[in-house]
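Section 3.1: Structural characterization of target chains.
Under the original work plan, the team committed to producing a structural model for every single-chain target entering the pipeline before any wet-lab resources were allocated. The record below documents one such target. The sequence was received from the expression subgroup and is listed exactly as submitted; it comprises 336 residues.
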Amino acid sequence: MLFLRRVAAFSLVTLLFLNVGACIPVDCAETDITCQSGVSLLTLLLLRTTPLWVAVGATGSIAHSDDGATNWQSVGPGTGGSLFGVTYGAAGFVAVGQAGRMLTSPNGLTGTWVERSAVTTDALNDVLFAEGIYVAVGGVNGSSDRILTSTDGQNWTDRTPGIGNTLKEVIYAQGAFLAVGQSGVRAFSDDGITWSNVNVGGNTWDAVAFGNGIYLQENSAGAIHTATTVGGFPNATGTHASANLESAIYFPRTGQFVLGGDDGQAYTTSNGVGAATAGPVFSGAVHWDMTTNGQSVLIGSSGGELSQADDGVNFTVSVLGVGNWNGVAYADVRMQ
């Protein structure tokens, strides 16, 4: 009995030590909960995370890497309809694509991806997680839009506002969601549930990003538009040399927007005003999507290319497969 009491006392002291309010000093992203002050050692152990880059693309291809540079591995399924977007949230990864295709995974690793029943036959072009919900957007070109929401990545509710044209991309910034798409359609929402729409011009919005207090949108006419509010009219303020820009991200490390086009280059601009600066040609691919962990930028492109740069300009190319990598995401994944 004395031995058992000593073991119990030791266990209690150990738990109390682990649960103290002191933090281990580390350098990491502000969004990483393990960096927040007052997080206990016990909480750190329970919320252990590992960095993971994920890419999705043609014929249901999925790949991941721990560094986003060279260590890419195919994780399947590699069959069926193409995937266009991927994100990470409270329930893990969600990937969306052709004909409403959806797959989920708790951690993005091999053997964990599960095909979910489609809730629409419309293409789903992008997905994100913010404010406790997953939001997927898409539709049918020239015909209809589609917005779906879910708290668990499995059960989805239709929130379609009836804009009448497909949505290509969705972001969350300054307490609001913004989705953009074909023929100038734009939809925005404070909660992801109720959406308002404002159509701006007839040119398709190919990409949207937020940073430096600016909403930056790229259109199919080769112009960069900016606004300071989610519902504000995006005025034409900048240009670029690419025939079409397909992707954009704000890169906190440099304070620049990074833009990807169809000419094998990336472009940078701090505010979307004037001519964007062209970087060196590093591939011949179309750059379909971008993501960042705050320290480097990853581009998913055609021809199986996955390219990364620590400065958002000088990219190193890895090749995995031959199809398009349409969507990319970074996450600090919870491992249990």
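The first strand starts at residue 49 and ends at 57.
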